[in-house]
Amino acid sequence: MSIPVSDAGLQPERTALSWTRTALAMMVCSVTLLRWSDPYPDIVFSAIILLAALSIALILVNRRTYRTEAVELSREYASPNVLGVGLMTLMLTLLGGIGLLLLLIQA
Asked: In this structure, is residue 6 part of a structural domain?
């Protein structure tokens, strides 16, 4: 894929890779919920599937915006990645909230 960017530092590629890395890290962190899989299998496996789906959605959204970001940077104007930040915020809030809920139920 050829992108029209004059950035020798490849800013769009670094940004796309960092979002992908963050989404994959979130998938790994969601597996920590397996700790509670014995007493609450429905909640835990539903949460893991939901967080994995959101991670995949985040990867796909950022793959799609990669070219757009490169074009915008070559024009020296880039719009913020609101959808990516929103998805990541939702994922972190869900992971933290479900983990807290499971801790409170267990106690």
From this structure: no
Question: Which of the two residues, 8 and 59, has the higher pLDDT score?
Answer: 59
Three-class secondary structure assignment of the chain:
CCCCCCCCCCHHHHHHHHHHHHHHHHHHHHHHHHHHCCCCHHHHHHHHHHHHHHHHHHHHHHHHHHHHHHHHHHCCCCCCCHHHHHHHHHHHHHHHHHHHHHHHHHC
In a domain, 16, yes or no: yes
pTM above 0.85, yes or no: no
Q: Which domain covers residue 44, as residue numbers?
A: 11-106
Q: Would you say residue 75 lies in a domain?
A: yes
